[in-house]
Design brief:
Layout: H1 2-15, H2 22-29, E1 31-35, E2 39-44, E3 48-53, E4 58-69, E5 72-82, E6 91-110, E7 115-131
Antiparallel strand pairs: 1-2, 2-3, 3-4, 4-5, 5-6, 6-7
Length: about 140
């Protein structure tokens, strides 16, 4: 890992700039999206959050996000499953740490929302996940 960190620091020093933060991207573009390979995470400027599967079946979240520190995002919302059985009252809180790795993006169409979004390359850690009462 120290070799990877050294390469990252070298790349930042060589370009003279660090990639923008998630909040900076949302403020500039009105949205921020990335994928972990099985799900697509979409943060909209109005505070809406959507997670959907990249295939025909998988987990989903529809809710709200807020920044709770540099790189830290809190998501609260209803969890479900596309093309599967879902509980009507599966309301959860998830805390993510997101570090944007590069300013290079890839355009990708979200399967379920039929929208084209810029996908950022990120490191993402699910730091916390907790079930909440239905009223939040």
């Amino acid at each position: 890992m120290s070799i990877a960190l050294s390469f990252l620091i070298t790349a930042i020093l060589a370009t003279g700039q660090q990639p923008p933060s998630v909040i900076e991207i949302i403020e500039e573009e009105g949205q921020f999206a990335f994928t972990d390979g099985s799900s697509t995470y979409l943060f909209l400027q109005d505070g809406s959050f959507f997670l959907e599967p990249t295939t025909l079946s998988g987990r989903s979240i529809e809710g709200q996000w807020k920044s709770i520190g540099t790189g830290w995002m809190e998501i609260t919302g209803t969890w479900g499953w596309y093309n599967g059985i879902s509980s009507a009252n599966d309301y959860r809180r998830m805390v993510l740490y997101i570090n944007v790795r590069s300013t290079e993006t890839e355009n990708s169409e979200l399967l379920w929302r039929s929208e084209n979004h810029r996908m950022y390359d990120v490191y993402c850690i699910v730091d916390e996940l907790a079930k909440l009462e239905a009223n939040g």
